[in-house]
Amino acid sequence: MRHSFQPLPTFAGRSRPVVDLVVEGLELAPQACLLDTGATAVRMGGHVADLAGIELDRSMTEEIALGGLRTTGSAATVQLELRQGHNSHVWSPTVYFCDPWPWAFGLLGLAGLDPFVVTIDSYEEWSELRPRRE
Amino acid sequence: MTDAIRTVVIASRDFALRASTVEHHLLAVLPEPVRDHFVVINRRRYPPKQVVSVITGLDRAEFTSHHARRILTGLGFPAGRRAGGQAGSDGVEARPARPEKEPRSLSATSRPSAETLEPFAGLWVATQGPEILVATATPHEVVAWLAEHRQQADSMFRVPADEFQAGGVAPR
Hints:
A: mainly beta; Cathepsin D, subunit A, domain 1; nine-stranded mixed beta sheet; three-stranded antiparallel beta sheet; B: 172 residues
């Protein structure tokens, strides 16, 4: 299934490749995450952990420099679900929930993309995440 | 839009309404889900009955949706009809319907346009197809609204107010 880029108002730049992920069963509000092939980890705002009722292990906290800003992330292994038509793909990567989080989207870095073969068509503005065959 | 006082009769009672007062009343009121008709106030789409109930204190059973719509368009607010209905006749186009019959596996997901998002820069939104369900100051309010109104969004994010928020551009 193809995922359209999210168009943004002109002051925010061009459309971005995002996919919507259900985090730990928070079905009513899938979180838009930027496909970030330049990042290694999966990072989201700390508010997502609050909303999904995810307990964070503060001993697994680290300071991260991200996008020109320092933020603090707490790691947790959580279930992510990517819905694609009638099918869905579920996997459980480590996600860093960060505060502060001034960005618009979560960041789906390489560790979150491991289960997929990813195609990004920047010109046509779509992406495709095809689950890797076991 | 003129801001003259307009006297209307609703449920056998007289009300003196002014457009600016209606706008002020609704600043802190989140719109409920739009089923069919809507009016646009403060750049948001409200069900007409919700608006008239808020500004008059009347129970919604005391007036019809059409009556509420007529009152509000009489105050100068644009009105329209949601996708799936007919296009509005007083200034607002109905948005395109979601392509429900098209196999989703063959088509790309549908998302709100840049123009649709622009008035909500800096706010958290829940979207469904090309439409914005709700826009609020915090992500917690978005989820509370979705739960209260039993809505399921396709996507939730903050509309970036600049390029930094969109992707984390390093400072220059």
